[in-house]
Amino acid sequence: MATPKFDVYQHVTDAIISEIEAGTPPWRKPWTGERGGLAFPLRHNGEEYRGINVLMLWIAAAKNGYASARWMTYKQAQELGGQVRKGEKSATVVKYGTFDREDPETGEEKAIPYAKAYRVFNADQIEGLPGEYYHQPEPARDLGTVADPELDAFFQRSGAEIETTAEPRAYYDLRRDCIHMPPISTFHEAAGYYATLAHELTHNAEVRIMPHRYAAPVVL
C-alpha cells in the first residue's frame, strides 16, 4: 500500500486549529512566565523565521517546554558540533518559493509557487552546541492580579481538584484527575485566569461524560 502524500497546507492548518481549540495557543497566553520556547524563533545562524513558521515553532516549543529560540536541521546541528539526542522528535517548518515552468500553450516562463516541508530540532534537543544556543526561560512575574472570591467559590463547587504551583502552565492532568493552574498573580488580568480555568474544567467534565475517549493518560 502506498504511503499517503504529506500535505503541507493541511498539516499547518490542523496544527493551528488544534491550538485554537485548546483554548490557550502560545501566541495568546494570558499569564507570564514560560517553561521555554516562546522567544521569537531563530534559525541556526540567528536569522528570524517568518510567516506561518513562527506560529508552527511557537506551538512545538510550547508543547515541549523548549527554552531555546534556535532551531536547525539534523545536518546543521552536526556541522555546529552537536548531536540530536536519541528519540527526539522533529518539528515541521515550511519553505515557500517559486520555480519557473514554460507554459505549453504560450511558450512563456511562469513562476509556479510551491511549499516544501522540512524537519528541524530545537537546540534543547541537541547536545554539544555552543553555549549561546541555550537559553533560560522567562521567569513568571507577580503582576499583583487578585482573585475574585465569588468566582473561586463557583469553581470550588464544581468538585474539580484544582492545584496551583509556580509551574507556568495550565492543563488538566488526566492521570491525577487534577487541574493545574499557575498563580493568579502571574496573569495579566483576572478574566484571563478564570477563562483559562473554565477551559480546563471542560476537559475535566468531558472525561467524566465520555471516559471511553480517554483510555490513555494524557495532559490536556
Write up what this structure looks like.
This is Antirestriction protein. The C terminus is likely disordered. This protein has a 3-stranded antiparallel β-sheet. The protein has a 3-stranded mixed β-sheet with strand order 6-8-7, covered by helices on one side. It has a two-stranded antiparallel sheet with strand order 2-5. It contains 5 helices and 8 strands, in the order ααβαββββαβββα. The protein has 2 domains: 126 residues, no CATH class; 65 residues, no CATH class. It is an alpha+beta fold and 220 residues long.
Count of folded domains: 2
Q: What oligomeric state do the depicted chains represent?
A: single chain
Rounded Rg: 21 Å
Unreliable residue stretches: 214-220
Percentage of residues in strands? 15-25%
Give the helix proportion (percent range).
25-40%
The structure class reads: alpha+beta
Question: What's the tally of helices?
Answer: 5
- DSSP summary, beta strand count: 8
Shape: elongated
Mean pLDDT: 80
The sequence of SSEs as H and E is HHEHEEEEHEEEH
Domain Polyvalent protein metallopeptidase: 150-206
Pfam family, one: MPTase-PolyVal
Protein name: Antirestriction protein
InterPro entries: ArdC_N (IPR013610), MPTase-PolyVal (IPR041459)
